[in-house]
Amino acid sequence: MQLLFALRSRGVTDGAVLDAMERVDRGLFVRGIFAERAYEDTPLPIACGQTISQPSVVGMMTQALEVGPRDKVLEIGTGSGYQAAILGHLARRVYTIDRHRRLAMDARRVIESTGATNITVICADGTLGLPEQAPFDRILVTAAAEDPPGPLLAELRVGGIMVVPVGQSDTVQTLLKVTRTEDGFDYQVMRPVRFVPLLEGLGQE
Ligand code: SAH
Q1: Which of 42, 58, 80, 204 has a 20 to 30 Å separation from 29 between CA atoms?
Q2: Integer distance in angstroms from the first to the last C-alpha of the chain?
Q3: Residue 120: strand, helix, or coil
Q4: Cis peptide bond upstream of 165, omega within 30
Q5: Which DSSP string corresponds to 143-177?
Q6: pTM to 2 decimals?
Q7: pLDDT, tens only, 80-89
Q8: Helices assigned H by DSSP within 79-141
């Protein structure tokens, strides 16, 4: 498959991640005039002015998250639901939050149609985290924040990993890998990326 070749050539080499990505049909998550480009390694517009991320970036972030089969994962920024569907093949349990009700509803419908039963889609402001399910083994943020949101850091289990794009502008962002240790947090800068902003509050429909 053309997409898998692109993933490998961009450094996504983890067998479990490639396998999970092979099992998720990106074509289900892109609608309208862009659907025919679903198998290209490019970000594409979805509803509410948002984007489905570039597959190689999805792969790279998923790989950095080092998800194990017993992990409980929180994703902030459901968007199309594509990333959540991939995480669902790697983790025990996935909670994914979007601030746009329409995106959350559409994503829930597509994910359910795939037969996945370990993914819960929630419409809420993800910057507040999900206290009732915390702590999480892994947290993936797929919208760019100025800094990793405090409530999310607080909901990361000791030994847990969070991957989050950070940056003060739309154009200059870096992907950060945060590991919670016994006595604090380790920060590892990964690479430049470009994501839509993490915004507070619910989306205006
Ligand atoms: N992971 C998605 C792409 C994410 S696009 C996919 O696989 O398709 C970024 C998403 O973050 C958008 O849908 C946007 O609505 C959402 N978002 C931005 N700020 C948010 C917040 N505070 N809480 C929850 N979702 C947020």
Answers
A1: 204
A2: 37
A3: strand
A4: no
A5: SBBSS--HHHHHTEEEEEEEEEEE-SSSS-EEEEE
A6: 0.97
A7: 999 999 999 9
A8: 82-90, 101-113
Task: Give the residue from 47, 39, 42 showing the smallest Cα distance to 21.
Answer: 39
Q: Greatest CA separation found in the chain?
A: 50
**What order do you get walking across the sheet with 93-98 strand by strand?**
119-123, 93-98, 72-76, 136-141, 156-166, 173-181, 184-193
Question: pLDDT digits over 156-194, tens only?
Answer: 999 999 999 999 777 789 999 999 999 999 999 999 999
| Backbone angles phi and psi of 72, in degrees to 5 | -105, 120
148 CA distance to ligand 1 middle (Å): 15
- Nearest CA residue ID for atom 10, ligand 1: 77
- For the chain, domains (ranges, CATH) are 2-193 (3.40.50.150)
- Using CA atoms, how far apart are residues 105 and 86, in angstroms rounded to an integer? 18
What's the 98 CA to ligand 1 centre distance in angstroms?
5
- As a whole number of Å, the CA-based R_g of the chain is 15
Our mutation pick for probing the ligand 1 site, out of 34, 140, 142, 173, counting the most ligand atoms within 8 A of Cβ, is 142
Residue 199, CB half-sphere, CA atoms under 13 Å: how many?
12
Atom of ligand 1 nearest to the CA of 103: 13
CB atoms within 10 A of CB 186: 10
